[in-house]
Amino acid sequence: MDPAPTSIDHLVLPVRDLDLARARYEALGFHVAADAQHPFGTENACIFMQDGTYLEPLGVADRTLAEIESRKGNPFLRRDQAYRFRVDDEGFSMVAMRSKNAAADLKTFSELGFAFGELFPFSRSAETLDGTIQIGVELAFAADDRAPDAAFFACERMNMDSLWSPERTAHENGVIGLSAVLMSEENPTDFQYLLQAATGMRDFASSSNGLSFHMEGADIFCFTPTAMQHLFAIPCSRSERGARFEGVVFLCKSVRELKAHLEAGSIECFDHLGRLIVPAAPGQGVPFIFEEISQ
User: Fold this and answer.
1) How far apart are CA 58 and CA 90, in angstroms?
2) Spatial contact of 249 and 180, defined as CB atoms under 8 Å apart
């Protein structure tokens, strides 16, 4: 059975300190939503974008509770804790794919040999302009043991549309959404089947750089470290095998205006092949790359 074609829903970006992450994202010109807590010990401060995606800087609010819930089998916490142990408390650990039926996606992941854990539903309260509402998700995880630092999950939303208000999606830096997720691996084709399962894309482009999954909305690139350094100025600093998320490419209205904004705030950035590169920094665990919307 083939998985249903889908698109990126959101990105999970572990952070050591949520207040520090908020300050960093605001310095980059993003509007950051209010802090919110999950019922299993983690917390976030999301960045909602006009294309319907969002970033989830993820902190740990209650380590004892998170440890208890992880030992009970919570797949979200298990992947988060593994990433923090192996890589760092700051980085890019998971990509959520938008789903219409997470239970069916989990069944497919299982048939393809990539299911991780059981179907995971949860809900929490959220603040909107009209007051407090209950929102929820159902998550189905897909992972490959050969890539212990990266996971995907199908995300079926419930009652979340009102979170994308004009006030939340208007960013001072001109960002309107995601352009691409960047992964690297010495031999990207080793992870072809995981990426096909997670994205629902049977067809993909293959080149000497690696694999390109061109989806509705943002793409996913799994390139060699050499290609990653050449195309996106991301250093080849890792010796371990295994696909890992290395950076995020955003679409913005004007690279020139964004560069001026960042330089005025003493944010390190530089031009590279027509894109603006912002290296990783405290509160921002991976490089952010900005490219201009095609006219």
Assistant:
1) 9
2) yes
Ranges assigned E (strand) in 99-256: 115-128, 131-142, 151-158, 175-184, 205-206, 210-213, 219-223, 244-252
**Is residue 91 left, alpha or beta, with left meaning phi > 0 and alpha meaning psi from -120 to 50?**
left
- Pairing status of strand 151-158 against strand 94-98: parallel
- What is the token pair recorded at 241? 């095998």
The label of the residue with tokens 């999954």 reads 213
Q: List the domain boundaries for the chain.
A: 8-168, 173-292
The second-level CATH assignment, the architecture, of 8-168 is Roll (3.10)
Q: What is the pLDDT of residues 36-75, one digit of tens each?
A: 999 999 999 999 999 999 999 999 999 999 999 999 999 9
Which residues touch 98 (CB under 8 Å, ≥6 apart)? 6, 7, 8, 9, 154, 155, 157
